[in-house]
């Protein structure tokens, strides 16, 4: 049999490396009886179209990023909120991999005919623009591209920007044509999509990790023979730590590539500067709770709790 796996990113990306690792494991453990066919971004559609294909069973596996998915599964919008998770990436990695968290999302995904298999962090969101973005006031009047869900746009509306939702594939040309002024993505994506070629600044404010989810069609997953289900679950567990290392490596090495190939100005915000953004971002949590309801609020509360428990006590 062949499992079709659709990616929201192009070849060489974090999602592509993840898919290759999964493919290798599944093809080996099944003695070549299961093949994984990988469809990198561009071949079959936008993020939301991939989610639709997974819901109807045309693809078996897909990446579905909350920034887009939150209009379909509002609870996932929690990952678009700023300054919610830890500043410590390894704390976030462990929280995102915890069964307790995945469990809480299982019903919202199932209601959309999807099985949530894993959350995958892909690195800090970095802001690109043609000016430094050191205070919320710097966002004033900026047409800032966001992922396509309403809650993803709210995060930047809170800073005074004019959010401009668009699919990933459109971002480069929108920047080039000055239809938008800026956008947010992890470094590896800014490099591989060439956004840095048409922007003059990168601001590191570490507002949030880019988080994605791996999904499958629910009926397909439920009907998998026991051994295949186990292989898939084991392979997902094995790939998680590798994928974390891959994103760390790619985000670091590609920043060097950007530095070498451009004059992009790199701005690292101070803790005080980040604090102003954090304050401005807080009301968006209420908007999220309104959109995502009781179940969404419970997830938000649990995440805050998990971060508090996992972070070492701040010294007095
Ligand atoms: O900005 C986006 O739309 C996309 N960014 C990344 C890093 N992955 C997929 C997502 O669709």
From TrEMBL:
Protein name from the UniProt record: C4-dicarboxylate ABC transporter
Superkingdom of the organism of origin: Bacteria
Keyword field: Signal, Transport
Gene Ontology process terms (BP): transmembrane transport
Similarity section: Belongs to the bacterial solute-binding protein 7 family.
Species name: Marinobacter vulgaris
High-level lineage: Bacteria, Pseudomonadati, Pseudomonadota, Gammaproteobacteria, Pseudomonadales
